[in-house]
Amino acid sequence: MSTPCSSWSIERANDWHQRQPFLIGCNYNPRTAINQLEMWQAETFDLQTIDQELGWAESLGFNSLRVSLHDLLWQQDSQGFLSRLDRFLGVAAKHKIGAMFVLFDSCWHPFPRLGKQRDPEPGVHNSGWVQSPGVAALRDHDLFATLQDYVTGVVSHFADDLRVQVWDIWNEPDNPNTTAYPARDMGDQKTTAAVEYLPIAFDWARAGKPNQPLTSAIWSGDWQNDETLKPFERLQLELSDIVTFHNYASADDLEKRILQLKRFNRPMLCTEYMARGNGSSFAGSLPVLKKHNVGAYNWGFVAGRSQTHYPWDSWSKYYDPIEPPLWFHEIFRPDGQPYDSAEVALIRSIAKP
C-alpha cells in the first residue's frame, strides 16, 4: 500500500478559497448521454448540446460544473480524450464556467464497457451509469495499477489550467451499491478495496503536480466528532485539500453537518445535494450553503437519458415512464423550460446577487 501523500496546508487551502467566487453549479451530464462513456466517446461527444445547455447554466449564474470522467476513455484513445476535455473546457469558459473533474466513481453498474451504451430502462433512475474503475480492477491489484497513467496523465495535462477548479479523485469510493446491483458488486469488500486504493489514487494525482486542490467527498455516517467518523471517512478527510461532502436531507440537517465539519478549518464544498422527494430542496439548502460560503453543486441539470428526475427507489418501484409525479433531480426540461420557475428564480437570486 502506498504511503498517503501530503495534503495542502490549511493556509494554502484557505488562500485558494479566498481567490474563488462563491462556487455554484451542478453535477453535469448532457441530456443526450446516459453515462460518462456516452458523454465523452468520440462517436457520441455532443458538443452542440453541451454548448446549448451550458448557456442555460450561464443564465442561472452557475460558475462551476462537477463532471465525471472514465478510465476506459484514456485506454481507448488518450490523446483524443484529452482533446475532447479541452474542447469541453473551452465551451465552458465561453459561458464563464469552470470544472471539477471526477476521476473515479464507485456508483451504479459494476462492469463498464466501451462502445455503444444501452438505452435507458424506462422510468428508472441512472439505469445506465457505470463505475470507474469497474469492480474487476478493484479485485485485481495488477489491473488497478494500470490506471496510474490515466490519473497522472489527465491531471498533469490540466495541472496549470485555470479552467479546472478542483480534482475530485473518487466519488463515494466505499458505496456498496446495494440498491441497484447487490449481487454483482463487492458489498462490504468495497470499503476494504477503497481503503487500499484511495491513497494510491491521490498519490498518482499529486504526481501530476496540480495547482488545483484534490478531494474525495464523505457522504454518509456520523460526523459530529473525530470519534464518530468512520475510519474511511477520516482517511478521505486526511487526504483531501478541501472538505467536500454530500447531503440529500433537510436544510436543518445540512446546516448541522456544515457546523460539524467547520472544525477542520478548511474550505467546504457540498458536491451533491437536492433531491426533492427526499426533503432536500433548492429553497431549503441553497440559502444555507450561501450563508456558510459552502460551494453548492446540486445533482442534475437537464432531464435526459440518465433519467435522474426519477427517484432512487425507481429500481424497485414503478413510475410512469412519461414523467414522475415529482421530479427527484434536474432543473430543466429537454427544451430548456424550467421544471419549476420559482426554483430558477431562487437560484439566480443567490448565484447572481
How does the SSE layout of this entry go?
Elements lengths: L9 H9 L5 E4 L8 H5 L6 H14 L3 E5 L2 H24 L3 E8 L29 H4 L2 H5 L2 H10 L6 E8 L17 H19 L6 E2 L15 H9 L3 E4 L4 H11 L6 E6 L8 H10 L3 E5 L41 H11 L2
Parallel strand pairs: 1-2, 1-8, 2-3, 3-4, 4-5, 6-7, 7-8
Helix pairs in contact: 3-4, 4-7, 7-8, 8-9, 10-11, 11-12
Number of strands: 8
Spans of at least 5 consecutive residues with low confidence:
none
Helix content: 25-40%
Question: Which strand-content bin applies to the residues?
Answer: 5-15%
Strand order of the largest sheet: 5-4-3-2-1-8-7-6
Radius of gyration: 19 Å
- State the separation between the terminal residues, measured CA to CA: 48 Å
Count of discrete alpha- or pi-helical segments spanning 4 or more residues? 12
Question: In this structure, how is the largest beta sheet organized?
Answer: 8 strands, parallel
Order of helices and strands: HEHHEHEHHHEHEHEHEHEH
General form: globular
Question: What class, by secondary structure content?
Answer: alpha/beta
Average pLDDT, rounded to a whole number, is 96
